[in-house]
């Protein structure tokens, strides 16, 4: 699926009513317009909802690496093999327009179709439950994203181990804003690129504690970033092979590896096991059993072998979740200990 690359035309110089170029008042430094960035236009071969496709990459409403704006555009700040980059994605009349800034701009634009699910094949999914058939028909723009970046999915997944989502989102936000770098280009306010592997490795122990990250999760992140090159190599592997390598790192188990390759590889069969809520949600939606465990969830998803992650996504999109009976788990604020 070829795209078209073209630079934006230069911004015109403001002209005063008299016809001469406008001069800023004395003593005021003129504001520099941001570089226009590189552009790629890509036409998908079917329905596409960028917000739906890219939603799993967002780690909470305050994620400094991800922004959705009222104009419908989606912004991402990433650390690519070519360096930091910012990508803005918008859709107009069936065309996807990607605009990127920074050293990683070319890398991001080259992989724009894969990011939006061009490598995914929704037709491989054959619904066996009426609920999933209806949901798939209602959300035809669902594609599975493939970022090609492993650490940017692995690290926040490690931070989400055994804690509430609010705790994990807060930790990711604080660490990226404090130790990352500003997103290149005219990114929305307070967007940042996650820290480089060496920077993660040099974060002092008290800063992890201040962000609410316990020693076990911090140590897992440190082990992963020390093997950053080996971790990123898995982007070119099949999902199951990639998961086996990731799980060699102490502290990375099936839950974390599945959450990672779902995003980095667009893995349609990487169903998450070991999750506190997912088995009950799948059990309730497909069999009316809110007490389902991992084994029962896998049994219910067995007809979707090869597409179990997509089936679980459709369950979550269906809105058929069991009514809450117990109070939410309270966040642990270890930084106050």
TrEMBL record:
It comes from the Bacteria. It comes from Streptomyces tagetis. SUPFAM superfamilies: DNA-glycosylase. This is DNA-3-methyladenine glycosylase 2 family protein. Signal peptide: none annotated. InterPro entries: Alkylbase_DNA_Glycosylase/TA, DNA_glycosylase. Keywords: DNA damage, DNA repair. Residues 55-64 have a biased composition (Low complexity). One of its GO terms (molecular function) is DNA-3-methyladenine glycosylase activity. Residues 1-41, 55-84 are annotated as: Disordered. GO terms for cellular component: cytoplasm; protein-DNA complex. GO terms for biological process: base-excision repair, AP site formation; DNA alkylation repair.
